[in-house]
Amino acid sequence: MAPLARRRAAPSVLPVPEPDLTPDELIARAAALKPLLRAQQAENDERGAYSPELHEAFLKAGLYRAVQPRMFGGYEFDIPTFYRAMLEISHGHPSAGWCLTLCASHPFLIASHWPEQAQRELFGTDGHFAAPHRVPPSGTLTPVEGGYRLTGLWDFCSGIPYATHLVCGAQLPVAGGPPQVFCVAVPRAKLRVLDDWGGDQTLGMRASGSRSVEIKGAFIPAHHAVPMQQGLFSRPEDMRDGTPGTRLHGNPMYLGRVSGPYHMSLITPVIGAAKAALDEYEDIVRTKKTNFPPITLRAEHEDFQRALGQATILTDAAENLMIRGGEVYMEICARWAADGTPITVEQNLRLWAMLQQAGRMACDAVELLFKTAGTSVTRKGSRMERYFRDVQMYRAHPSSLFENFWAPVGRAHLGLPIRHFNF
Q: Which of 32, 250, 316, 329 is deepest in the core (most CB within 10 A)?
């Protein structure tokens, strides 16, 4: 019997805001916001997040609800649709795209791994849920009646300015043994968001809303915390009978084998930066002349044609690899639904590592355009300078360090234990 055939009847359903909205229409709505995103780049970088005006536009477009279950007021679109929409936002402003993507992607996580009671409470009566997920277990859980008290400080909570919740890692001390690690969903009313992002406080991704969050002694119901192994690094044997999400929603996407799709959230803004840098570069070479003879428009000189062509190819390859990564995830989930084929650790690692190459190519494209565009683009406020700074933030992200993944992929393929991650 196929795994999804074992699910029980679905409970009552919240109304979807626009039942007839299609994936293509969602993506078109995101694309239509690019002029506003471009116009607000400087002010949103200074603010440290996108504007309230853009937040309202994202709400109206349905972007926060794209991967949220229909049962709880979402559209339940597939993973490729969500990231294609986020790419349009990131094309308008990469760091605003980072902010939205890292906030709007996590209904997928909650819908996959939290029990039904928790999902009903977290998605709430109006169905609006938006939350960063800060993975490192920087908090401590103390058992109390009915749940835990949570205390901790989490930095880089990208997307927190407009979040309804924070999903964060926390440790539960265990006498005589290593601590248990949990993913905990915490409502905004229990958070203190610090003003430590925006302007010149960081090199790039200045509008990503990556502020720190402090929690002191907040009560967390027991069913709002799930083991980290279940919520992030699920083993094949843990998924034999599916997840709370597959049983509740009947959709294999909610297996929530998230490590591959998670990296799509990081590379999509970077690919958006590459597409935006191509736009800027074309404007430059069509309007500026060469510095050395023969004096001509740069667009007519082979050196600039070569750089534009190479960056275009890198960006196209990165975009298509990103979309294919989402399709691969949906395909392996569908195979599980059809015949119970598990998603292996090796598949998960290889998808993650494949997507890293898309991020790598997009960074290479931006850096090539930046270095050949001329010294004027190094001035503060230049869009090309902004895009260059933004991709350097991805270059430094621990999840982007592709060389560190080669040995784990090799070990997984050889059937050896993965020492590098908590698999």
A: 329
